[in-house]
Automatic annotation (TrEMBL):
The keyword Electron transport does not apply. Residues 4-365 form the Aminotransferase class V domain. It comes from the Bacteria. Its cofactor is pyridoxal 5'-phosphate. Keywords: Iron, Iron-sulfur, Metal-binding, Pyridoxal phosphate, Transferase. It catalyses: (sulfur carrier)-H + L-cysteine = (sulfur carrier)-SH + L-alanine. GO terms for molecular function: cysteine desulfurase activity; iron-sulfur cluster binding; metal ion binding. The keyword Transferase applies. This is Cysteine desulfurase.
Length: 374
């Protein structure tokens, strides 16, 4: 049975072109980028070219990009080090952030090095910008705002330029978790002033375990990982050269093919929405699908005896998707995002997330098979 992968917000398959670029480096470049001999210089050049590709994609300077082990490390680094090194004593964030942000904030609260306040979320799952303005105006403390660009469960999009302008006007730093939007939406850091942002290669058809953090030149922080002088003294440890080369190749392709891929994915999602509404009129969509990332759709199915087994039945039928319901049933660990939006809901939620590799036929098959599982 060939499988249908509709879990592309969790991760994406490695693009064969990216795999080719990585294996070429694995086979031929074993130098340590810190060595001054020819092998080392070759490895260093690969990393610096990759950095240039990322900086070009974001319209920032190459000195502002630091490679990490992924989005989790990038977000930890931005949050914890801006408290440690930049005098931030107050963070404003949202309850719908990814756990790597929320748990970093828990650690900061535990250490009592900064206070954390949560902005209000409206009924559709968007950040209430007036509440953000109110929170920012309420204190003169050095504040960092940390809000994600697109929610990984419901897809809701933050108006990035507007939030950046609000933060700039209030004199606050702005960290944006752009892990879900990197490569999918244009981000111009010369036009939109951010202090920090994060990216993770495996969300845009690159390898797992590699990402990057953008740190604007105005916000010099100290290393997160202590060690050698790698990443211009910002992250000790011999660099993941193949991963970094793969990340850059994947981002280059994502940017070059953005419109084509986006058109295809939008078409699939629209078809999915139309078909599922027509076939199962009692489904509901979480968040605000009209103002969301085009690859994500969170669907709630009415309470039913088979609902708890929905994800397992999808899997048994060759369909991969993610869970996320308000309640914890023992099988489904529950989602803090759906739990926040619909605390009393007993409905069963499935996140479908699409890729340019999916087809209309796959969508039709999923809609047809769902019938027997509800
Ligand atoms: C919004 C968001 N932030 C951060 C992360 C963490 O990224 P990584 O898996 O590279 O650590 C993810 C991955 O699920 C994500 O969706």
């Amino acid at each position: 049975m060939s499988r249908i992968f509709l879990d592309n917000s969790a991760t994406t398959p490695l693009d064969p072109v990216v795999l080719g670029a990585m294996t070429e480096v694995m086979a031929n470049n074993y130098g340590n980028p810190s060595s001054i001999h020819a092998e080392g210089r070759q490895a260093r050049a690969l990393i610096e070219n990759a950095r240039k590709t990322v900086a070009n994609a974001l319209n920032c300077s190459i000195g502002e990009i630091f490679f990490t082990s992924g989005g989790t490390e990038a977000n930890n680094m931005a949050l914890k080090n801006s408290v440690r090194d930049l005098g931030v004593t107050r963070i404003i964030s949202s309850p719908l952030e990814h756990h790597c942000v929320l748990h970093s904030l828990d650690a900061i609260k535990m250490a009592e090095t900064a206070t954390v306040e949560m902005v209000k979320i409206d009924a559709k799952g968007h950040v209430e910008l007036d509440d953000l303005r109110r929170l920012l105006a309420a204190s003169n403390e050095k504040t960092l705002v940390s809000l994600m660009h697109a929610n990984n469960e419901i897809g809701n999009l933050l108006p990035l330029e507007e939030v950046a302008a609000i933060c700039e006007e209030a004199g606050a730093l702005f960290h944006c978790d752009t892990v879900q939007t990197m490569g999918y939406f244009p981000i111009d850091l010369d036009a939109t002033r951010l202090s920090f942002l994060s990216g993770s290669a495996h969300k845009f058809y690159g390898p797992k375990g590699v990402g990057f953090v953008y740190i604007s030149n105005d916000n010099i922080i100290k290393p997160y990982l202590d060690g050698g002088a790698q990443e211009r003294n910002m992250r000790g440890g011999t660099e993941n050269i193949y991963g970094i080369v793969g990340l850059a190749k994947a981002l280059e392709l994502a940017v070059a093919e953005r419109e084509e891929r986006a058109g295809k994915i939008r078409n699939l999602k629209d078809h999915f929405i139309r078909s599922i509404k027509a076939t199962y009129p009692e489904v509901a969509f979480n968040g605000d699908p009209d103002n969301a990332h085009y690859k994500v759709l969170s669907v709630s199915f009415p309470e039913s005896s088979k609902g708890d087994l929905l994800l397992m039945n999808l899997d048994l039928n060759g369909i991969s998707a993610s869970g996320g319901s308000a309640c914890s049933s023992g099988i489904d660990v529950g989602s803090h995002v759906i739990g926040h939006l619909h605390p009393d809901s007993k409905r069963h939620t499935v996140r479908f997330s699409f890729s340019h590799h999916n087809t209309i036929e796959e969508v039709d098959e999923v809609i047809a098979k769902l019938g027997g599982m509800l």
